[in-house]
Amino acid sequence: MDILEGSIAVRGRGKNKRKWIPVEDDELIKALVDVSLDPRWRSDGSFKNGYTSVLEARLAEKLPDSKISATPHIESRLRYFKTKYSALEQMLNKSGFTWDPTKKMIQCEKQQYETHCKNNPDAKGLYGVSFPYYDELSMVYSKDMATGEGAEDMTDVVQNLEEELVRVNANDEEDGEDMTSVETPRRSVDSTSSSSKKRKKEWKGKKTSSSDPLLDVFNEVSGDLKVATMLIGKMVQAMDREASNQEKARDEDPQQKLREKAINEVRRLEFTGSEVIKAAGVFVRMPDQMGMLFALPEPLRRKYIVDMLRDEAARRERERSK
DNA sequence: TTCTATAGATCGCCTGGCGC
DNA sequence: GCGCCAGGCGATCTATAGAA
């Protein structure tokens, strides 16, 4: 590489390249998740003007030597991530492709992958390579949870989770082990029910159930971090959406106000995007945690959240081992 | 050494929001 | 309604790394 990191060589197409290093990607994704959860910069599923400048400022703050600018660096990098994320999602939408949440990579037959790549060049380079930002990007770019029309409010989210679980149960029994004989219905690019089909596939073979459907939902969610991140992300998005839709009524809705306050507090304490989402999931499940958070003196709040997330992780682990 | 795939940057057009 | 601005996105170009 003859292009120094963050340095500018010569202007012109293909020139003036900079090499993104992992820590820069990490910070960019963290900032992107944060901004996507901030109703000031994102509402109704789309970003507002100037959000790339916010990302630039955030990166400048975290990595003062990087000299990454909104245009073209961040814009280009986000496009790259979005392309790869879309390609991944497209694959996961097909039968035979699954996501390994531990290795953070696609799992499928190589032959099948190569065939897919012939029609979808964007998917090249994703086989056997970990893509650590899929969870975060699914929160940011999943259209079904972002667009206004097909978007769900908090009640819908929970209700749909229950309904979806019932469908999964039924399909599990029907489908058996046959993952490739018949293609599952394709997810249309902008379908509002799209992610449910993908999740259906990922839920295969993981079922145990109790008599409480809602408890089942959260128990099952805990078994799969990717799905959990997506679904909790939906909740957070729904909360944000409600915040903007009911701006006038917000002052009269203490629960909603408390949720926003709690999430803002977690973000203020500089937790990562995925940690914020996990915390939001806990707040939805156990609203008392929010009250307790604010009851504590400020210096203790960070430790409280850390403990809360650790307990949540332990709870998930227990559920997994049941 | 040549070829090929990939990453990163740029260009140009479209669209939507916003102020006048 | 019009113009401006910024995001989205496809097309394209070039540098580079790795394979043949």
UniProtKB/TrEMBL annotation:
<feature type="domain" description="Myb/SANT-like">
    <location>
        <begin position="19"/>
        <end position="113"/>
    </location>
</feature>
<dbReference type="Pfam" id="PF23950">
    <property type="entry name" value="MLLE_2"/>
</dbReference>
<dbReference type="InterPro" id="IPR024752">
    <property type="entry name" value="Myb/SANT-like_dom"/>
</dbReference>
<dbReference type="InterPro" id="IPR056623">
    <property type="entry name" value="MLLE_2"/>
</dbReference>
<feature type="compositionally biased region" description="Basic residues">
    <location>
        <begin position="196"/>
        <end position="207"/>
    </location>
</feature>
<feature type="domain" description="MLLE-like">
    <location>
        <begin position="254"/>
        <end position="312"/>
    </location>
</feature>
<protein>
    <submittedName>
        <fullName>Uncharacterized protein</fullName>
    </submittedName>
</protein>
<feature type="region of interest" description="Disordered">
    <location>
        <begin position="167"/>
        <end position="215"/>
    </location>
</feature>
<dbReference type="Pfam" id="PF12776">
    <property type="entry name" value="Myb_DNA-bind_3"/>
</dbReference>
<feature type="compositionally biased region" description="Acidic residues">
    <location>
        <begin position="171"/>
        <end position="180"/>
    </location>
</feature>
